[in-house]
């Protein structure tokens, strides 16, 4: 079996790997933000804006958002396939959930753009 | 109603509120599923089906697993609040103060707490999941023990997060 993670056609193995790779990025980002709040006694607007105007933090945040989209595209698909047996309804729900995930990324992109 | 009962009894009323979006979705899909089953019962072979959750035994591993799924879906919907608050807080000093003032109220604190504990559970159980993918905790004993550990650790972290937020 040829396993090419870079190919556009998806299969179960690639979904498995993508879900876990994105999970690691999301875990590290969650710990990063949690660490920021725990080590900053009072978060002021200047400090908060300073954090997200840092280019590295912008890239990290956007990467986390894109990983969230990939992660939930696969994860929510797993949940939908388990519980929604009607293919048409599953496609419609999946479409809206994926649209929502994309909206999260888009909102994040424009927020980071303007900071 | 059975689902209502099971969730409130086993996972508490507080977590239940957090799960409202996913439950709404669950109810809709269940109704559609039932309609479909109704249409097929006469055609399909009759098989004994037990869907009474209160008579199915739920070992720690099963609880850890379903909580991971629930927390993942809850987290996805909670992100709409998180990303909105994040966007508003970065828009201007006024926006920042507005979001900050929201957090003096119970509802905002509760939503924030709900999002944080969904993340904490999904994170802790996710790490256990990754360890299992690498061959750890796959025996009955260690699987059960690590599942109990994950749930207990989450309860402690959830209380700490509550203290931190309030
Ligand atoms: C934005 C944050 C996140 C969201 C919205 C999210 C959402 C989800 C959803 C909906 C699923 C599918 C659940 C299922 O199939 O039962 C899932 C699965 C999974 N998540 Fe996440 N997740 C997030 C972050 C994380 C993090 C930080 C980790 C890291 C430890 C993680 C690890 C996993 C793993 C290992 C699975 C696979 C579970 C399985 O195959 O049964 N996730 N996630
Ligand atoms: C990109 C990230 C990672 C890669 C490529 C990786 C790779 C590996 C490989 C190849 C093994 C040996 C597997 C085996 O013997 O069956 C292993 C074992 C292990 N890894 Fe990772 N790992 C990663 C991340 C992590 C993380 C994030 C954790 C902890 C949260 C972790 C904890 C462990 C542990 C505890 C073992 C020992 C498992 C055993 O002895 O059965 N690893 N890892």
From TrEMBL, chain A:
List membrane-spanning regions.
21-39, 59-80, 92-113
The record ties this protein, via InterPro entries, to: SQR/QFR_C/D (IPR034804), Succ_DH_anchor (IPR014312), SuccDH_FuR_B_TM-su (IPR000701)
* Annotated membrane topology: Multi-pass membrane protein
Pathway named in the protein's UniProt entry: Carbohydrate metabolism; tricarboxylic acid cycle
> Would the keyword Membrane turn up in this protein's UniProt record?
yes
Q: Where in the cell is it found?
A: Cell inner membrane
Per its UniProt entry, which superkingdom is the organism in? Bacteria
Keyword terms? Cell inner membrane, Cell membrane, Electron transport, Heme, Iron, Membrane, Metal-binding, Transmembrane, Transmembrane helix, Transport, Tricarboxylic acid cycle
Needed cofactors, names only, are:
heme
Which CDD domains does the record match to this protein? SQR_TypeC_SdhD
Could you tell me which NCBIfam families the record lists for this protein? Answer: succ_dehyd_anc
Q: What is this protein called?
A: Succinate dehydrogenase hydrophobic membrane anchor subunit
Q: Which organism is it from?
A: Pseudoalteromonas spongiae
